Each structure stands twice: as structure tokens, then as C-alpha cells.
Amino acid sequence: MKYKRILLKLSGEALMGDKQFGIDNDRLTQYATEIQQAVEKGIEVGVVIGGGNIFRGMQAEEGGMDRVQGDYMGMLATVINSMALQAALEKMGVDTRLLSAIKMEQICEPFIRRRAVRHLEKGRVVIFGAGTGNPYFTTDTAASLRAIEIEADVILKGTRVDGIYTADPEKDPTATKYETITFNEVYEKGLNVMDMTAFTLCKENNLPIIVFDMNKEGNLQHLVAGDKVGTLVEV
Fold it and tell me: Which residues in the chain land under pLDDT 50?
């Protein structure tokens, strides 16, 4: 196996499947199955999920709501998604722990770095909920931060597209895909990989990012085995 410990970043929108909002059970099961297969190979897996399928802080701000209030609501949405993934994994017999950046003792443990690392060492999937626990930071930034804290080998950013392109492939049919690209090239070309705070954290800590299509069955397995899938961003 190429990677011993990974941080998988999933978007909340991806959990919708073909629905307009909420959680698609088939998509949830697919993701849980992919994670289960990685765990069976001995990979230590941390997961961060967005909350965009339920609520986005930015939307609240557009509607005139206080940005901070909206961001906290978004954090709670990520906890709902995290609980759904936890339930799907445990149904498959995978040991999990949900650690939240906001204290909610009845449903999850508070995030404590050493505890998170210990869970990973014991083979449990660790799901990090509630973002960073601070407004104005995205779940991309939470994923970068947690990956650095747990000393993950790589961030795997699961999206709907199979990598980073010269332009948005859903809008521009002439867009071509990068197999590998450096952090500096992403800056120079103005490509949208993650928000800049998250991206800069990865660059400064020499943490590679792989952007790939999580919805294609087997992609995660190929990635952890070291096969070329998606686009690799490295220094």
C-alpha cells in the first residue's frame, strides 16, 4: 500500500446523489463500502464531510443572516452527515469514532488530537465533525488542519469530477486534465482546488492532495494501492 494513513474529504453535496437536498442512502452506502474496503487493507482512515446538502453558511449570509450564525448552522449540518456515515459504516461492522470540534457529549467525543491518533492506530475510522469549530473556515480547511494534526500521508478530495482540469470540464468541453501539478502552478493558473486557506496549509506543511472522482466505484481502492487516479498536487 502506498499510503498508511489518509484523510478523505467528502463534499456534502455529493451525499445528495440525484436528490435536491438531504442524504441519498445508496450514495451513502457506496461511500461506506469504499471506506470499509480501505480499512480491510490496513489503511488508517480519517474523514471530513461538508454540510452543503443540508445547509451552507454562505447561503444564510446572502439571505441577510449573520455570517457567524450561518457558519455554526453549517457546522451542525456536517455533524448530521458525519452521524449518517458513522451509522452506515457501523452497519457494515466497521469500528468508528465521531470527534466533533463543538462539544456534543451525547452523540460524539470532543476532538482531542492524541485521542484521534490513538483511534486510528487501533484501526477505527475517525470522522471529524463540525469543521474547525470556528466560523469563516470551510470544511476544506478543517480537512487540511486535521490531516496535518494526525500526520496523514495525503488528503484525498473526493469530488464529482475525476481530477483538476485547465477549466471547468462541466462547462468547457475543451478542458484538459492534469495528471500532476505543483502547488505553485495551481496558484499561478488560478485553479480552484480548495479554498486558499486550506490549500496554503497543505503547501506549507508539504501535504500532497489528490483530487479524484469518489462516485466511480473502486477509485478509492486504486488510489490507496498507489495507482494513478485523479490529479496529484504536490510541492
Answer: none
Q: Environment class of residue 4 by beta-carbon count within 10 Å: exposed (0-12), middle (13-18) or buried (19+)?
A: middle
* Cα separation, 220 vs 196, whole angstroms: 25
What architecture (CATH level 2) is domain 5-234?
A: 3-Layer(aba) Sandwich (3.40)
Q: Whose CA is closest to 48, among 118, 105, 133?
A: 133
| CA 56 from centre of chain | 16
State the Cα–Cα distance between residues 157 and 234, nearest whole angstrom. 14
In 3D space, the residue among 148, 95, 105, 145 whose CA is nearest the CA of residue 125 turns out to be 95
Say what the pLDDT of residue 87 is: 98
Give the per-residue pLDDT at 185.
Answer: 96
φ, ψ at 169 (rounded to 5°) = -65, -20
pTM over 0.85: yes
Helix, strand, coil distribution of the chain in percent, nearest 5: 40, 20, 40
In terms of Cβ atoms closer than 10 Å to its own Cβ (0-12, 13-18, 19+), residue 96 is buried
